[in-house]
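A favour, since you know our structure tokens better than I do. Go ahead and set the record down below.
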Amino acid sequence: MEEIKVMVADPSHEKYVDTILDTIAEAAKVRGTGIAKRTHEYLATKMKEAKAVIALSGDKFAGFSYIETWGNKEYVTTSGLIVHPDFRGLGVAKKIKDLTFSLARTRWPNAKIFSLTSGAAVMAMNTQLGYQPVTFTELTDDEAFWRGCEGCVNVDVLHRTKRKYCICTAMMYDPEEHLPVKIPAEVIARIKRIDKKGK
């Protein structure tokens, strides 16, 4: 087996999109859970915008994940994490998760990064990165995000509870909670005024 390389996807990786979509659909069937339905064009756009991570072993697809922003980029999700069955158990998911997390933190350093998952392995990876379990009410209120849940077999639970909870566990990384000391809002406002004058 060739070395597995994990990288930020680019337009040359569009040829893997149909394989990615098939792998996601098969995994959802096996787990009996849903996943946000995405199109070929949607994932290809994520690759073009440098909002996706792909893992390849030579020219074979090994894994994938992508980034979405919500609520005027105040919230970010790293979504659609999938590893092809031929490459499971090799630490590929962790490498993909680490790179998507780093990519999200680099591009939107002040955004809250959240994850909805029913998988214990993803929960463990999230915990290692500093995510904490949260209630669904702490997540984005962006309707476009919640429409992604409509393809899940458990969406009835989400509707019955008026989005208070579901089968998935909500986890969030809040960059403010990881600062050694929280800077008061009035000081941040003052810094912004000072920075504006300097431009």
User: Anything to note?
Assistant: The radius of gyration is 18 Å. Helices lie at 17-31, 40-48, 92-107, 120-129, 143-147, 155-160, 185-198. DSSP finds seven helices and seven strands in the chain.
